[in-house]
Design goal:
This protein is α+β, with helices and mostly antiparallel strands and 693 residues long. Helix content is 33%, strand content 20%. The strands form four sheets. The protein has an eight-stranded mixed sheet with strand order 6-5-4-7-3-2-8-9. A six-stranded mixed sheet has the order 1-22-18-17-15-16, with helices on both faces. The longest helix is centred in the middle third of the chain and has 30 residues, at 426-455.
Length: 693
């Protein structure tokens, strides 16, 4: 299942609470020392009432409370170590992998400049990382302004780099000059080897400080840079690189740059894993890869490319028979996951071209409304890649492109070349238009179904599903809803819950597989509509996270095949029609135990067979009684509370979306029409299945 880290990196589940015997309180509830104090009826805040007489209690003259010595000046890279999240997003898995990405991005910029075609990335047994490229090598001469070797300037001074001008890089992804220096600051140690002009140099840093000055250490026959670094455990704690995440990220990089080869190596395992990523087809191969588990409407992707001065626009388009839209944009190899002007230009032009063609050839009649953007993008797989000399990104994480000049350029290219393509290939054009018209009819049907539902005072009223046992607390921050498989388990959950902040929504039977259905079918589905109503945030384009009634949406199903299937169906529904819910980290999976191990009145709960053996060792029991739970309904209300619902003892897995492309691929593979890829996936990943998920 996609929630297993080893099975897929697209949708991941992270533990938000420790194992049952840890006594930890989970993430949302630990906002207070006593989780129930936030919602107890008799809980009151101490309020300080201020009047004229009470101002005297505040000392407004004591300068020692705030003086010059309180202003700290962080020198060098201290600021990075003090606030790492400002530079790499966070100090979790995403930030950890971002360190590698920053170094590799520098090598890719060398490739964009035409000086590099091979990048080798290795995760070493000691969890350090080695990145080697055959570029020109970082300059080693004395910097004219700083008076130290340039390679040291690059790694120890923020906002120092070769991408601010000077002609070394006409196009690059690194504009802030903080990449290598930030990685250095957040590493326990870093060693950099530079080969230039047949000479090999070495410099070493520890936690951002130079500990071994640059020195010539030998000779070499080719130029290039080798960077070896180990992330600092003081910053990242006990960390573990996910090779699958790396594979996804650098496969993407290889697609976007067909001239380079990226080698990925994992030397933490025996035998080592080695992957060679090289795609001569570029983004054409990228789109084909996106659609590999789908049925394309046209075999050959539509490829459009144009250069205007220093700006380069490249687009690949291929429609498939699914109902999902998968359009990804990049600027100078940076994934702009929030889009930007290039994405806006593409979407605007695509909608216009499709409508113009449909009207020209009578596929849209005079009285017909224009196709909307969501109609023309149903079943669309597309890559938009732009390269430009001065990209304006939002912040160091670079998630959105802001260059105003790129929008009309992309619009013009798509308007001209896509229109010409449709004229030249009328059979493909008709298939695409038919797909868009079908999507438009389904959208109208969905709107009518939604309007009908609203007229019945459901979606736009306070009406809630009849089976929902709501909680008393009204602040969604402290509320959680358990979506429970089956009425029997739902009954136990209702009786065992903490009514003040826990709601229960029982489901019965298997719901619609939304991977194979359009949105209009969702509104007619009696299994899914109660979920939409209970959460209160809408669905699809109408989804509004601010209206969400519970900040923890917890899926609680049996630990068997049917339970796993139901969880997958629900996760597919959330991913396709309530994606912000997943992105914001509001979806969780409950982990009920498989066994109760007991002797007399003493009992323990176990999630795996290994847990059972550990309980035996811990207690010294030789032949304890073991109860195997076949389903949630077998537990009493008290047992269900103790093991699965009590914030102080339960185990929850948070569902997160590390990579949207891989998540889409996984859901298509697991829930789509093609059987063989799914069978192969199960065979490969069966060994990673976990009993507690």
């Amino acid at each position: 299942m996609a929630i297993d880290k080893k099975g897929s990196q697209g949708i991941q589940a992270d533990q938000s609470a420790a194992s049952v015997d840890s006594g930890n309180i989970d993430e949302v509830i630990n906002l207070a020392e006593n989780p129930q104090a936030l919602i107890d009826d008799d809980f009151t805040e101490e309020v300080l009432e201020l009047d004229d007489n009470k101002y005297d209690s505040f000392d407004t003259t004591n300068a020692s409370h705030y003086n010059e010595s309180d202003i700290q000046v962080l020198e060098g890279l201290e600021a990075v170590r003090k606030r790492p999240g400002m530079y790499i997003g966070d100090t979790g898995p995403r930030g950890l992998h971002h360190l590698i990405y920053e170094i590799v991005a520098n090598s890719v910029d060398e490739a964009l400049a035409g000086r590099c075609d091979l990048i080798d990335v290795t995760v070493n047994p000691d969890h350090s990382v080695t990145v080697i490229d055959n570029g020109s090598g970082i300059p080693v001469g004395i910097h004219p302004k700083m008076g130290i070797p340039t390679v040291e300037v690059v790694h120890t001074i923020l906002h120092a780099g070769g991408k601010f001008g000077g002609g070394a890089y006409s196009v690059s992804g690194g504009l802030h000059g903080v990449g290598a220096s930030v990685v250095n600051a957040l590493s326990e140690w870093m060693e950099v080897f530079v080969c230039r002009d047949n000479r090999k140099y070495k410099i070493r840093f520890e936690r951002g400080a130079t500990v071994q000055q640059l020195a010539e250490v030998g000779t070499c026959t080719s130029n290039g840079t080798t960077t070896i670094f180990k992330p600092d455990h003081k910053i990242f704690g006990e960390f573990e690189y996910d090779f699958n995440i790396m594979l996804t990220r650098y496969r993407e990089m290889a697609f976007l740059n067909p001239e380079i080869t990226i080698k990925l190596n994992d030397h933490r395992v025996d035998p080592p894993v080695e992957k060679v990523l090289h795609y001569e087809g570029g983004i054409i191969s990228f789109v084909e890869y996106l659609n590999k588990h789908k049925e394309p409407l046209h075999k050959q992707p539509i490829y459009i490319a144009s250069r205007n001065g220093d700006c380069y626009v490249e687009v690949a388009i291929q429609y498939n028979d699914s109902y999902a839209e998968n359009v990804y944009s990049y600027a100078n190899n940076i994934a702009t996951i929030e889009g930007g002007t290039h994405m806006t230009g593409f979407k605007t032009a695509l909608t216009k071209v499709i409508n113009d063609y449909a009207r020209k050839y009578g596929m849209l009649k005079a009285n017909d409304k224009n196709l909307q953007g969501e109609d023309v993008r149903e079943g669309l797989g597309a890559i938009i890649s732009v390269k430009l000399p001065e990209p304006q990104f939002e912040g160091q994480t670079k998630t959105k492109l802001g260059n105003a000049e790129i929008r009309p350029l992309v619009e013009s290219v798509i308007n001209d070349k896509l229109a010409a393509y449709l004229e030249e290939t009328p059979s493909i054009a008709r298939m695409i238009i038919d797909k868009c018209l079908s999507a438009s009819r389904a959208r109208d049907a969905a709107r009518k179904a939604r309007d009908m539902t609203r007229r019945k005072n459901v979606l736009e009223s306070n009406a809630l599903p009849g089976k929902l046992a709501d909680c008393q607390e009204k602040d969604p921050t402290f509320c959680e809803v358990f979506i429970v498989e089956g009425d029997s388990a739902g009954g136990s959950a209702k009786n065992g819950r903490e009514r003040k902040y826990q709601a229960i929504l029982p489901l019965w039977g298997k719901m619609l597989n939304v991977e194979k259905a359009r949105i209009d079918k969702v509104y007619d589905n009696e299994k899914l509509l109660p979920i939409v109503l209970a959460l209160g945030a809408g669905i699809g384009a109408d989804f509004d996270l601010a209206r969400l009634r519970y900040h923890k949406v917890i899926l609680m199903a049996d630990a068997d095949v049917d339970g796993s299937h139901i969880r997958t169906l629900l996760l597919t529904f959330f991913f396709r029609h309530m994606k912000p819910l997943v992105e914001a980290g509001h979806v969780f999976i409950a982990c009920p135990p498989l066994y109760r191990v007991y002797e007399g009145n003493t009992s323990f709960y176990a999630y795996t067979d290994r847990d059972v053996e550990e309980i035996k060792e811990k207690t010294g029991w030789k032949e304890p009684k073991i109860q195997r739970y076949k389903g949630l309904g077998e537990m009493s209300a008290e047992q269900l509370w103790d093991t699965t619902m009590n914030p102080e003892t339960r185990k929850l897995l948070r569902v997160g979306m590390e990579d949207a492309q891989t998540a889409d691929e996984t859901f298509t593979l697991l829930m789509g029409d093609k059987v063989e890829p799914r069978k192969e996936f199960i065979q490969i990943n069966a060994k990673f299945a976990r009993a507690d998920v």
